[in-house]
């Protein structure tokens, strides 16, 4: 049995290059993080070899005594990390990732063509919350269910709860989804609960982006108001790639959530759980229940505020004027720029972030603080990071002015050509 370097030097070399890239760059993608060595050890372990369809104590395969112990430990730690009473809340730790977890909830609660409302993708929502364009039902969620998205108030960049209420009263959804991929503010769960109750809908929160912040109690607690809470495990939570679904143990609107959700996960949509991921998740959740994790998440939020403050000082406009969480959305339009070009230039300077083509800010970028906070950044380094981003934006502007064509391809050709006069400056 050979190690990777001997068995497959090609894959080893690619992993080494990716490791170098991660090590070298300023990682500012809001949905990414660096997980711990301990988590990676569990994920790279023999747990990947085992089939264990079913739940602890009720498996379709033999030899699961240790896997049962592991999954039970993971469930207990998940409830503890989010401060939940095991008599009132349960959790399924088997979802393969965030999108499957959401679809499993829809499968559990809805019939085909039932109505749902989630935040529109161009306003910061996630594909899996029901995205569709006027021409096409893009996400499976909008193919199998009838989706009526809600939106932000474009004048403030804040969620338009009044409009959500008005639309919900007309559309009468069976499920309202809170949560977002690009929203820098906290959610008004009491208001959303009221709206859900007024129309007899389930209320689900997809806390994928902010689950680490929720565990550390540095943002509002969705568990007080929601029936179901889903999450990914690899973003601010700092775990392996995966998903979880938390559900109330009481029956809600006549549905026994526990059995409906567990059945939707298996046999509804999944087969064998990824036990190596569940092992890594258990390790992550132990850390998520520690005082150090609370300190880390507090730093994530302070760092994001420092970044936001410096960007404002430098003359940038932020969607909603700032941030309550781990991300900021920057409007580059006042600089005559779009996010795509800035993303490319910053990438060349090893500053990794996302363009964010939202309806409010078609020319924007999304910047997150979790990953670099894991690498030890404090406010001071995030202020310096804002200055570096500013420099990159200035270079993008100069490059854009120097390119003859208007297409992104022309821009790419120019900035990657040997005569790009600003390349030396970027490499510094
Ligand atoms: N939900 C939200 C709010 C997200 O931001 C994301 C991913 O970015 C997901 C769900 C989907 O997670 P995954 O990529 O693991 O399917």
TrEMBL record:
GO terms for cellular component: mitochondrion. One of its GO terms (molecular function) is pyridoxal phosphate binding. Its cofactor is pyridoxal 5'-phosphate. Pathway: One-carbon metabolism; tetrahydrofolate interconversion. Keywords: One-carbon metabolism, Pyridoxal phosphate, Transferase. Interconversion of serine and glycine. This is Serine hydroxymethyltransferase. It comes from Dillenia turbinata. The chain holds residues 82 to 509 of 526 of the full protein.
